């Protein structure tokens, strides 16, 4: 049996997936996360995120401000959030854990 998903079901699926990503907030069609990490951890995180983002053909915005790193994922141009962008956020969480626990 095949199940067809309409755009509303897809949106609900992505919203449900986002609730599992603690610390991420939604701003329109973008999601954002602020991480309190040092410069060395920021560099390691950025390298790990670049590898995953390149594989997914996505370009997150990563910036350093004082003692924190800010990350934005999504187009912000009225385009809806995609499964790939939510997946990227999950992989960023994995990378964050790796650089802070190591």
From TrEMBL:
Gene3D superfamilies: Transcriptional coactivator/pterin dehydratase. It catalyses: (4aS,6R)-4a-hydroxy-L-erythro-5,6,7,8-tetrahydrobiopterin = (6R)-L-erythro-6,7-dihydrobiopterin + H2O. It is an enzyme of class 4 (lyase). It comes from the Bacteria. The keyword Lyase applies. Its EC number is 4.2.1.96. The keyword Lyase applies. Transmembrane segments: none annotated. Keywords: Lyase. It holds the Pfam family Pterin_4a. One of its GO terms (biological process) is tetrahydrobiopterin biosynthetic process. InterPro entries: PCD_sf, Pterin_deHydtase. GO terms for molecular function: 4-alpha-hydroxytetrahydrobiopterin dehydratase activity. Belongs to the pterin-4-alpha-carbinolamine dehydratase family. This is Putative pterin-4-alpha-carbinolamine dehydratase. It comes from Micromonospora arida.
């Amino acid at each position: 049996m095949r199940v067809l998903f309409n755009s509303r079901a897809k949106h609900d699926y992505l919203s449900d997936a986002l609730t599992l990503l603690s610390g991420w907030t939604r701003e329109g069609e973008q999601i954002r996360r602020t991480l309190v990490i040092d410069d060395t951890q920021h560099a390691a995180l950025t390298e790990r995120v670049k590898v995953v983002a390149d594989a997914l053909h996505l370009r997150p915005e990563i910036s350093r401000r004082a003692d924190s790193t800010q990350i934005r994922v999504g187009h912000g141009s009225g385009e809806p959030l995609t499964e790939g962008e939510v997946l990227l956020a999950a992989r960023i969480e994995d990378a964050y854990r790796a650089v802070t626990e190591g």
